[in-house]
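Consider today's protein:

***
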Amino acid sequence: MLILITAINYVIIPDMKQLPKRLLSIDVLRALTMLLMIFVNDASGVNHIPSWLDHAKEYEDGMGFADTIFPCFLFIVGLSIPLAINNRISKGDSTLQLFIYIITRSAALLIMGFYHVNLEEYNSTAAVLPRAVWEIIITLSFFLIWLDYPETMARAKKYVLQGIGIAALIVMAILYKGGSDEHVRGMHPSWWGILGIIGWSYIVCAILYVLTKGKLNLLIIIWVIFAALNILFHTIWHGGVFLIGDADSVALTMGGIIITSLYAYLVKIEKTQRVWLIFTILGVALIAGGLLIRPYAQGISKIRSTPAWVFICSGITILMFELFIYLVDIKGKINWFKAIRPAGTSTLTCYLIPYLQVSIFELLHVRYPSFFNSGIGGLIRSMAVAFIIIALVGLMEKKRLRLKV
């Protein structure tokens, strides 16, 4: 904590008006994270992969490579918040309009997350529709509702398409059957899924960012509170708080907000050389802090969202962001990442396309050759799937077939 505060005091505290509109380094980091998310999700169905590549077990003290992907994404959500909000302020949005924008985005993520969580317990035996058909319909409904419709499209046509999507989701909710054959049930919230967790974290951190007017000293205090709560809930008081749970996701997201604010200000005052020292200190300090607290707060665990996991993954993401600042923002090597760039600009679309892919394969009984279901062959398959999906999304992006939330 002291290292963080010392590093912050090394620069003048910025406000929201000093932030640039976009950082290409964030787009590239987001793209790489989405590529790896698709890869590890597909690799979860591959037999005999190295244990270090997979998720660690629930009560295991440790983490695999797959356990670093989602926290990195939450951190990136935080990296993007100051830029998005500042962009809307520059267009003249009032505080009320900002809140509506934040709540609307969060609601979309929560709805999609809610359907995905119930998809996990879908009971094809009791339901009218096969699981794959239900999955395809809800995914297409998401596109109909949240598609980035062109401004030239007639409003009536847009509203009809969105209405079809909403109606389809309602019908799918009515037809849904989940649980076991002995205890069939309808849709209900259990956990919120990846998108839902992002939604809750986003609404909390984005609203706090607006309320504090982007003042970094206040944001640091909030991060310290979130980190302290996460430690508290894994040591003395095993519980949680409404909306933020054990504060792991909000600590990750708020960390991203702080890092972007620092970087944006250093760019503005033409002191980018300070980035290397400050970000290296913060990244290494957080990793070291995670390792130090590991024995006293339930070890390292993604599933249990322990403080060591939060701190270590935050530190790793800061160091990765620093690398991409150098490669992309300083050296201008954006073309190195051209193949995966759609994953950074149409990220939600990339996340949803695998749901269609898996469902279509299931309906058509598509099976990979045995070589691609195990070991190195399976890993090659998973990486190929990730690149193919991103390439497909790139083509869709050119036709403006992407979600905008």
In short: The first helix runs from residue 2 to 9. The mean pLDDT is 92. The two ends are 34 Å apart (CA to CA).
